[in-house]
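Handout, section B. The chain below has 161 residues.
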Amino acid sequence: MKKVRDIAGYLIGLLLFVILIPLLMWKLSGDVDPGIIQAACFVVLAAAGLGLSVWSIVYMKKVGKGNPMDAFNHEVAPRTVNLMTEGPYRICRNPMLLGVFIYYIGLIICLQSWKAAAVFIVYFAIMMVQVNREEKRLEQDFGEAYRDYCKKTKKLIPYIW
């Protein structure tokens, strides 16, 4: 049963964050004809962002012994049992989300659309609510070790925030 929940979590994440939200951004943007520079920028940022997200997921599975699909304190797939502070989690406390944001920013540059940017802003706001709830749960689960990690590592943007 755990394997099924793991796979479901990964598929839901792939479908929602990598396919459906970008598809919504693209559809709302209308007829788009990006230039070569915008398209190249998208390819670079998408590769970097998705690469960071995948690295974070793999690291979470190997070291954290869990799955990233935890939505607003509802466990879709098994949660991590080990606090992760190394690997991509040394960069920031939410490297998977940072990777998705980098991917979306590349898409916004490619689409050159305020509607795509508006989707990103709404998504960002929702995810910040999720992150804040998740951080409270992590503090309950890991206590002082998590508080120490928070003092050393920024929430989302390395060296800034």
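Note. The chain has one domain: 2-19+32-152. Compare this with the example in section A.
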